[in-house]
Amino acid sequence: MPPYAISLMGPTASGKTDLAVWLCQRFPLEIVSVDSALVYRAMNIGTAKPDAATLTQAPHHLIDLLPPTEAYSAGRFKQDALAVMAAIRARGNVPLLVGGTMLYFRALRGGLDDLPPADPAIRAELEAQAAIEGWPALHARLRDLDPETAARLQPNDSQRIQRALELCLTTGGPMSALFIAQTPVAQDNWLEFALFPADRVWLHQRINLRFGQMLEQGLVEELRELRVRYALHPGMPSMRCVGYRQAWRFLDEEIDAATLYEQGAAATRQLAKRQLTWLRSWDSAIKLECAAPDLRDLIARLFQQQFAMP
After folding, report:
1. pLDDT, tens digit, for every residue of 240-252?
2. Which numeric CATH code is attached to 5-113+182-306?
């Protein structure tokens, strides 16, 4: 009996998409994106969104869902993913959940008993902003992003305002919506794979190369057009995405081109580090070396066993 669903998790630049497309050409699978950045329309270069040719080979569900002016959340992802997965299974195929937004995987599989850990960079930025504008101003910002939580907090409750804003910026949605995803999906026949680099230098080199390619492909121009087309500001969840945050500073002439590359690549490496931290605690996942030359053969054999194929 084929599995109920398959998760393919891994840090950014570990080769998840290429492997998933290859698998879809050999097994009755449909890809469900588990990525908090790919949900935004018109954000293509900085999110490494699959190109048209790739999407023709292997259509992706849950990408291009909303404009970059809106927020998405773990709770909404869970609702959307369950609906898409049911439709995939009704067609006789198996959902292949692919991505690196570990909060979304946890919401879907295990619930959200624990909120995400603190992000020191975001926390420092909020504290610096509060020192200039005051906590009531940040409370007003929270009211825009998460009115339900803001209504429960006093304008000078600095600790709780900071944590709520931090969660909004980290997860791409309001803290109140995280609790929608508390109930886990009870399903035993669910395979989970996690891609790990045996050599961190290998992953860092891929990250550096890919971010440089994004700049060459026009990341800055893409953001410039987005700022003309939409009423954006740098505090929006979409503009907090790695790459766009640094490109925004470049367009505002706060940093030069060299610093843009250095900060963007460094932020992407930090993102990969956080993703790997989540994955190390994911005991139910089968760990696979993402740079192994026989990775495809290995995972194909595992899939053949599950799908009872010769």
Report:
1. 899 999 999 999 9
2. 3.40.50.300
